Amino acid sequence: FSSKLKGKAPNLDLEVTVRQTNASDEFGIDVPVEIRLPGQAKPLVQWIRTGPEPSSFHVKLRAVPVKVELAPGAGVLALRK
Question: pLDDT at residue 77 above 70?
Answer without folding.
Answer: no
